[in-house]
């Protein structure tokens, strides 16, 4: 009997607890506040949407991404890749299909968490900035200005880039390895452990400073231009592009393309310097970096300023834009696909899209 009383008491308490929890969730919903379980689910959906967006967009343009990095870091005295078409043909001829996608696995392993954190960080930063902005202005219906969106995007970019930077560093090295390169890195884990053992933990963050500086205009302008163009199109309704306050997938692709073009053009020189700094200290580096024969020489930079100075002095200012053409061809569809995939996946998962909601 005692055990039955205990079981009955436990069952009653469990039922009461369940009813109380349901009542609390109903109260949260009636007050317009998401219950903790709903908040967690929403966060997971946002992260999944961001991760899918990053993986899909990068895989779609993987050959151009690899060519861009090869053009950025190749030895100026031993040119193998002289342009976009020639470079792609050379990769296809010497390495085949696998060469086109070399480093893409590492890139996806990095970009999926990077993109997930970036999109989620942007939404949270936007909500926080919008809340403060409304408090300061006293306008409850106020919306984010382009400058505030740029700030939110910059915060998101720095957080995401810093969290996944070691993956980006080893991805750069894996990407420039060719069939004739010394077989130093066999994969992501082997590259990470080798760099840690031979160069120390600080080596995993080589080029971090120009990345931070570059990510502010790049990611910030991406989000600012994209969101501002969307808002303007919805309000102005030019050329009949908007129906029922919704933009078509084609229009959103165009907005993403414009955002990517602006952001990458402004920040590109910093991306070149970052890649070159990542190659410094690489024992038995790929020949594309060191050159061949008499022209063979290791890269030596003491810092970001030194890298800028030596690059301009030895190769001219145009060297800061090496790989810009394939990057421009790549970044426009990549950014556009990322934004649209993110919104489509969020719509499928049923996540609210607007910051002001």
UniProtKB/TrEMBL annotation:
The keyword Hydrolase does not apply. PANTHER family: SOLUTE CARRIER FAMILY 25. The lineage of its organism: Eukaryota, Viridiplantae, Streptophyta, Embryophyta, Tracheophyta. This is Mitochondrial substrate carrier family protein B. It is found in: Mitochondrion inner membrane. GO terms for biological process: transmembrane transport. Keywords: Membrane, Mitochondrion, Mitochondrion inner membrane, Repeat, Transmembrane, Transmembrane helix, Transport. PROSITE patterns: SOLCAR. Gene3D superfamilies: Mitochondrial carrier domain. Belongs to the mitochondrial carrier (TC 2.A.29) family. GO terms for cellular component: mitochondrial inner membrane. It is a multi-pass membrane protein. It comes from Morus notabilis. The keyword 4Fe-4S does not apply. It holds the Pfam family Mito_carr. It comes from the Eukaryota. Solcar repeats lie at residues 41-128, 144-232, 247-348.
């Amino acid at each position: 009997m005692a055990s039955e009383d205990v079981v009955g008491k436990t069952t009653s308490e469990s039922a009461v607890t369940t009813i109380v929890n349901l009542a609390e969730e109903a109260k949260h919903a009636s007050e317009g506040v998401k219950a903790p379980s709903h908040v967690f689910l929403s966060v997971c959906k946002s992260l999944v949407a961001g991760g899918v967006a990053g993986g899909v967009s990068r895989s779609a343009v993987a050959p151009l991404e690899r060519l861009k990095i090869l053009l950025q870091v190749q030895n100026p005295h031993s040119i193998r890749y002289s342009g976009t078409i020639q470079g792609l043909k050379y990769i296809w001829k010497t390495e085949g299909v696998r060469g086109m996608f070399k480093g893409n696995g590492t890139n996806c392993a990095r970009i999926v968490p990077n993109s997930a954190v970036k999109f989620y960080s942007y939404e949270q930063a936007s909500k926080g900035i919008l809340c403060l902005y409304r408090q300061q202005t006293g306008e409850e219906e106020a919306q984010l200005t382009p400058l505030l969106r740029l700030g939110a995007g910059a915060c998101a970019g720095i957080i995401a880039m810093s969290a996944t930077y070691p993956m980006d560093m080893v991805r750069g090295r894996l990407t420039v390895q060719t069939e004739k390169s010394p077989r130093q890195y066999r994969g992501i884990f082997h590259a990470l452990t080798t760099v840690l053992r031979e160069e120390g933990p600080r080596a995993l963050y080589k080029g971090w400073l120009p990345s931070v500086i570059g990510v502010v205009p790049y990611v910030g302008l991406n989000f600012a231009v994209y969101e501002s163009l969307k808002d303007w199109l919805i309000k102005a309704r030019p050329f009949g592009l908007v129906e029922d306050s919704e933009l078509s997938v084609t229009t959103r692709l165009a907005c993403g393309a414009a955002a990517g073009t602006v952001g990458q053009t402004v920040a590109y020189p910093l991306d070149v310097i970052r890649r070159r700094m990542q190659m410094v200290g690489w024992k038995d580096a790929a020949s594309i970096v060191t050159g061949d024969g008499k022209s063979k020489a290791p890269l030596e930079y003491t810092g970001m300023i030194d890298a800028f100075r030596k690059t301009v002095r030895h190769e001219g200012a145009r060297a800061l834009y090496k790989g810009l053409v394939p990057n421009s061809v790549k970044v426009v569809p990549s950014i556009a696909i990322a934004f649209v995939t993110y919104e489509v996946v969020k719509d499928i998962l049923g996540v609210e899209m607007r910051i002001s909601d």
